[in-house]
Amino acid sequence: MRDIRKELVEMLKNEVKPAVGCTEPVALALACAKAKELLGEDVKENRMYVSHNIYKNGMGVGIPGSKILGLKVAACMGIVGGKSEDGLSVLEGLSEEQVRESEKYLEENAISVEPVESTDKIFLEVNLKGENHEVTVKVRGRHDNFTYLEKDGEVIMDNEPKQTSENAAEERKETLMDNATVAEIVHNVEGMEFEDIKFLLEGIKMNRAMAEVGLKEKTGVGMGYGIKTAVKDGELGDDLVNYAMMLTSAASDARMSGVKMPVMSSNGSGNHGLTAILPIAAYVERCPQEDDKTARALAISHLITAYIKNFTGRLSPMCGCGVAAAIGCTAGLSWLMGAEQSQIEGAMENMIADLSGMICDGAKPGCACKLATASSAAVQNALLAKRGCIVPALNGIVGRSVDESVRALGCVGDAGMSVTDEVILNVMNEMNKVQ
User: Fold this and answer.
1) pLDDT at 265
2) Which of 15, 112, 123, 353 has CA 20 to 30 A from 386's CA?
3) Three-state DSSP class for residue 174
4) Secondary structure element (H or E) that encloses residue 205, with its range
5) Coiled-coil annotation: which residues (predicted)?
6) Which fold has domain 21-158?
7) For residues 413 and 315, what is the distance between their CA atoms, to the nearest angstrom?
């Protein structure tokens, strides 16, 4: 097998980082903060364009510190008080006074945010005009990846892709994950230096703290709080599956309702981070492990998530928590439970057979329901695969190997469901129209 430990560690450092708030509106706030800094004066006019996936995910989600939902207030927060140097934690640095000022800014100014067709599922363009200057900022590919900066017609940065939409697929650069295998990823994680991945343990502390907020009182949907009270009342068992489901959904309840605290994200998504990390945290609480082993389980979880996202796309018509992060988590859990490689891969096959139809209908408080399902399935399928209960080959989209299954999942989620994504957005737009 290839020795790709260095590349995988670098990937973990790039893809596992703190984020405050849902990463789609955060990305817009970050772009607006950068544009305002570049403009250097008060904003007189604004025009913002985002990909359909960004628009869908930012439409109805809570924004940290504010009672107003959605992309427009996040944009205002970026303009009023955001600092681009804070990256995906751009909203964390705003004071309560700045949040109120942002809400007032939204009341008094027309904020233009429009969905546009884009070959990249993550695409944002912010155009700001002041009394004397005009700027353009573009983000593409990743939520914090600036690809274009322009001021008064002078290009400051241009890392925009050069291919056209017609030849984009042919000219796509090969990635490390294109030719990787699950076995190769696990093998390389086992050989990593603990010091290189020790930082992943911070994700447990960070995401566990968010879960505590959702368990203390009913926030958002109240999934985690409801599961907690049902266990207390004896209506649900106090077992590992329900405990993982309780922690993960409680953290989503708090995060999606706009609680101003950071979570450790995974592959550009805070909810992915909750799903990839908290079921493992639940297992470690019930069955204590050495930090070295826990960090490796987390590394497997994040990297398998990245492996699947490589084929399904950064944003997808399918719920990434269910079809990527939860599959990554079940792989990490299986490894932590001492499963053999065939059982680790079997747990992933079970998840593909289980949750591959879960759609993404935007980021919102109701995501807690999906995370409850995803996290419980991750634990359940790890436990079942360890006992030899594995979906056999050539069942639906489950292929002859786990790697074939992952590619099939990617084909269904990307090419197969592109029309589904358009329909979902149209339905959501109709529902949100002011009558």
Assistant:
1) 95
2) 15
3) coil
4) helix 202-216
5) none
6) 60s Ribosomal Protein L30; Chain: A; (3.30.1330)
7) 10
